[in-house]
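Consider the following assembly input.
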Amino acid sequence: MNETLQSIQEKVASGGLEKYHESNRSKGKMFVRERLQRLFDDDLNIEDAFFANCMDGSLPADGVVTGIGKINGEQVCVMANDSTVKAGSWGSRTVEKIIRIQETAMKLEVPMLYLVDSAGARITDQVEMFPNRRGAGRIFHNQIKLSGRVPQVCLLFGPSAAGGAYIPAFCDIVVMVDGNASMYLGSPRMAEKVIGEKVSLEEMGGAKMHCSVSGCGDVLASDEEEAINYARRYLSYFPSNFRSAPKRTETIDPPELEKSIAELIPQNQNAPFDMYQLIERLIDEKSFCEIKKKFAPELITGLARIDGRTVGIIANQPRAKGGVLFPDSADKAAKFMQLCDAFNIPLLFLVDIPGFMIGTKVERAGIIRHGAKMLSAMSEATVPKISVIVRKAYGAGLYAMAGPAFEPDACIALPTAQIAVMGPEAAVNAVYANKIAALDEAERPAFIKEKQEEYKENIDLYRLASEMVIDDIVQPERLRQDLMLRFEAYQSKNVTFTERKHGVYPV
Amino acid sequence: MTEIKASMAGSVWKIVAQAGEQVGTGDDIVILESMKMEIPIASEEEGTVKELKVAEGDFVNEGDVIAIIE
């Protein structure tokens, strides 16, 4: 054994000074090599540029670990900042290491994971790491190139500052550890100096804020272990790259629950119910892996398994904001559908939607272009798509949720479904406003009721089935079975959406 | 003390928990009516309804304070 080599190896593997390790421990942060040990089935199997900057002596591995290991038996590439080394900041070798492992992920076509815990650029090294062809910009360029080709996952354990904040931004999913993770372009100190704003880090760029308000975070984890376990679980729903399909697992039927699907769904279209309970009854037991749970809760998005096959679920949640679509929920849906479509994950739409929100606030927020974004992503998705009309599907809500015009492989309805431009109350108000106003107050209720009944007959579900608007009406208790058969049948779907370079997206 | 805010614009359709009542996390305090839908506004914590800021029929905008829980 070569003793010089061994001593350098030990020094590098131990990271920065003990005081930084201690400070991390006090915040509930693991050492980077421990994180990697827990993340992988065994450990990081291959590590390159372990000796980066070893001549310096004070910058072990130049503050980042890069290499290849196995998760759920599959190879993945990783970069992981070491915050005990100059706060995980980026020097020129740090950047080169990150670029190289991204290039490896691209060549091998395997997922790329980013374990971020970094203060940002080392200003002292800026000429070497910032502006040139293989400067930090190339990291983002590579991420954009990798996007949709291989899954990209970000686990945010600490800060992700300034330019570094774009690493999470270009990932498919960002898991943030509550209390420690943050993302911001300018620190609170900078905000105070430059624009005069006084604000705390947590308020401006904390994990809770990003996972519930900005939507830059997808999953809020209470500690690092939870974040790591989520990432391992998340990847089990994905193939290694866009060329393959997710692996099928064993089918686990959902448990028998007290309330049947029919008992769960209220007859009154205007009354809320909890969509999670319907999802639970349709998918394999405990297979729901939710994304953006705390952001725009009026729309639920998550991965699940039906008959052991991965599906992406997009479901309106009448329990939150009536299930109405807002700019944020449209954004949430658009990204989720792109994610699923990129990696050959079929989509299941569970529809109970009064429409898109109206009013000054949302118009000023650009709800039309955000809604258009959702429709684009849905329309362009060429994976199998099944739209289940659970209850109401009004107006553009029907379109956004893969209505018949958008070539779903099937649009099927439960007996409680109601498809229309708008609900009976709104429609009668719109059509007969003048007439209602002209009537005596005493005569109005009877007139309104009569017209509403007429309207309901006009949009009767069996009439729509007779006109072949919908492909089938399904008994609620048969729905899971039906979805299993359909997803199996649609597996071989092979279509190209259209020929062109790319669309001009309404972002 | 927590402020319970309206999740979206609408009118107050029904008050479920009156001032002084005990509520648990997830218990409805008021139900709004918006987009022809019933929109329950639930308490985010356990406590007592200290004050109701709205009456039935009031219009509320997104973010308006509906009740204070203590």
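Chain B touches chain A at residues 7-9, 34-40, 61-62 (CB under 8 Å). Ask yourself how this observation constrains the way the partners meet.
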